[in-house]
From TrEMBL:
Pfam families: FAA_hydrolase. Residues 27-230 form the Fumarylacetoacetase-like C-terminal domain. InterPro entries: Fumarylacetoacetase-like_C, Fumarylacetoacetase_C_sf. The keyword Hydrolase applies. GO terms for molecular function: hydrolase activity. It comes from Methylobacterium komagatae. This is Fumarylacetoacetate hydrolase family protein. Keywords: Hydrolase, Metal-binding.
Length: 231
C-alpha cells in the first residue's frame, strides 16, 4: 500500500560525538518556569502547577556549529526570543516517578522558543489557544544533543541570550521552579511519554523582541551555543 502523498521527512537532531541522529516525536514546552520570567509575564511564580503547550516537530530549526539564517515569520510585529535548555527523551511511560524520571533522558541541547508575542497576547485576552503565537514555522531553533551519559544532567549553570552582542537574558538552570525530573513526572500523568519526545524546560527573564538583521546567540553552560541571524 502506498501513501497518496509524499511522506515528509522526520525531524532529527545531530548528536555531539556521534554519527547517529535523534528522531523527534513530540515537542512539549513548559511555561513560566523561572520565577523572574513569571513575574515579568504578570504571574505568581510560587510553585503554581506547571502548564505546557506544544510545538509541531517540524517547527524545529536544527542549528549546527555555524550561524544559521532564521526567518522572521509573517503576521507579527513583535517577535520574541526565549532561550531554553531542551531535554530529549529516550524512554517514557505514564505516571513516571520523579525519582526515576531522569532515567528517561537521552540528552540535552540549547533551544529557543520563538514567539509571535502580539498574537499570543491577543489569544490570552480572548481565552484562545496559543498556537498562532507559539507554533510558527522555524519557531524552535535547537542545537546538537549532548548525551547525558557524557555530561550528566545539568541542574545549574548559566543560560544566556545576546542580541548583537548585548546580553538580553541571563539566568541559571538552578532557578527553575520545576526541575526537569518534575516536568517529566507531571507530563507523564497526562500523556504517555515516548522516546523521541523533547521538553523545552523554560526561559529566564529578559525576553524581548528581535528584528530582521540582528544576530542572536543562545548559550547554556556545558551545552555550547547556537547563533541565528534573523532574516
Amino acid at each position: 500500500m502506498l501513501s497518496v502523498i509524499q511522506n515528509p521527512p522526520r525531524t532529527t537532531l545531530p548528536i555531539v560525538g556521534s554519527q547517529d541522529f535523534f528522531p523527534v516525536r513530540r515537542v512539549y514546552c513548559v511555561g513560566r518556569n523561572y520565577a523572574a520570567h513569571a513575574r515579568e509575564m504578570g504571574a505568581d511564580p510560587d510553585r503554581e502547577p506547571p502548564f505546557f503547550f506544544m510545538k509541531p516537530a517540524d517547527a524545529l530549526q536544527v542549528v549546527g556549529t555555524e550561524p544559521a539564517e532564521h526567518p522572521y515569520p509573517p503576521k507579527t510585529a513583535n517577535y520574541h526570543f526565549e532561550v531554553e535548555m531542551v531535554a530529549a527523551l529516550s524512554g517514557g511511560g505514564s505516571d513516571i516517578p520523579v525519582e526515576t524520571a531522569l532515567h528517561q533522558v537521552y540528552g540535552y541541547a540549547v533551544g529557543l522558543d520563538m514567539t509571535r508575542r502580539d498574537l499570543q497576547d491577543e489569544a490570552k485576552k480572548m481565552s484562545r489557544p496559543w498556537d498562532l503565537g507559539k507554533a510558527a514555522d522555524f519557531s524552535g531553533p535547537i542545537g546538537p544533543l549532548h548525551p547525558a551519559s557524557v555530561i550528566g544532567h545539568p541542574d545549574k549553570g548559566a543560560i544566556t541570550l545576546t542580541v548583537d552582542g548585548a546580553v538580553r537574558q541571563k539566568g541559571d538552570l538552578g532557578e527553575m521552579i520545576w526541575s526537569v525530573a518534575e516536568q517529566i513526572a507531571y507530563l507523564s500523568r497526562y500523556f504517555v511519554l515516548q522516546p523521541g519526545d523533547l521538553i523545552f524546560t523554560g526561559t529566564p527573564s529578559g525576553v524581548g523582541a528581535v528584528e530582521r538583521g540582528q544576530r542572536m546567540v543562545a548559550a547554556v553552560a556545558g551545552l555550547g551555543e547556537i547563533t541565528l541571524d534573523v532574516v
